[in-house]
């Protein structure tokens, strides 16, 4: 059966700055668009130069879109992390580890890919997206 594709929207995560949805749900799949260290209320990029704080905020934004789509971190099968510099990996990994172990009580953590690349805004040290399977 061909299930409809629906946009996932929430004011608890930053509004998209361009032409894309915060998340898209089709059947049991929920894809969260790349989130960054943006305050959902003001649209301001926060924590310049602090990848640890940016990672925590970015993951909270990912989690907000997941909740809006009927999911949580326990439903995530993969998180993709994009960093602007390899030197930030350890600090990002520490903040990431604290967040996912706290929000995945089953202990089955999502798979992860980490890519070092350029990001759309100079203020962004990290961007994270997620793919979840929702029952």
TrEMBL record:
Molecular function (GO) terms for this protein are: hydrolase activity
SUPFAM superfamilies (alphabetical)? YjgF-like
- Spell out the InterPro entries in the cross-references: RutC-like_sf (IPR035959), YjgF/YER057c/UK114 (IPR006175)
Record key words, sorted: Hydrolase
Keyword match Hydrolase: yes
Give the domain of life.
Bacteria
| Protein name, UniProt field | RidA family protein
Organism of origin is Kineococcus halophytocola
Q: What is the lineage of its organism?
A: Bacteria, Bacillati, Actinomycetota, Actinomycetes, Kineosporiales
């Amino acid at each position: 059966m061909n299930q409809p594709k629906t946009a996932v929207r929430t004011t608890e995560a930053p509004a998209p700055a361009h032409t894309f949805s915060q998340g898209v749900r089709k059947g049991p799949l929920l894809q969260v668009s790349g989130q960054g260290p943006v305050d959902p209320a003001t649209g301001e990029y926060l924590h310049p130069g602090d990848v640890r704080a940016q990672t925590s905020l970015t993951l909270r934004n990912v989690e907000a879109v997941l909740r809006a789509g009927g999911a949580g971190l326990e439903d995530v099968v993969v998180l993709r992390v994009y960093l602007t510099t390899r030197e930030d990996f350890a600090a990002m990994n520490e903040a990431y580890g604290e967040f996912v172990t706290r929000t995945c009580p089953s202990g089955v953590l999502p798979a992860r890919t980490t890519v070092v690349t350029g990001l759309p805004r100079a203020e962004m040290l990290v961007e994270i997206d997620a793919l979840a399977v929702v029952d």
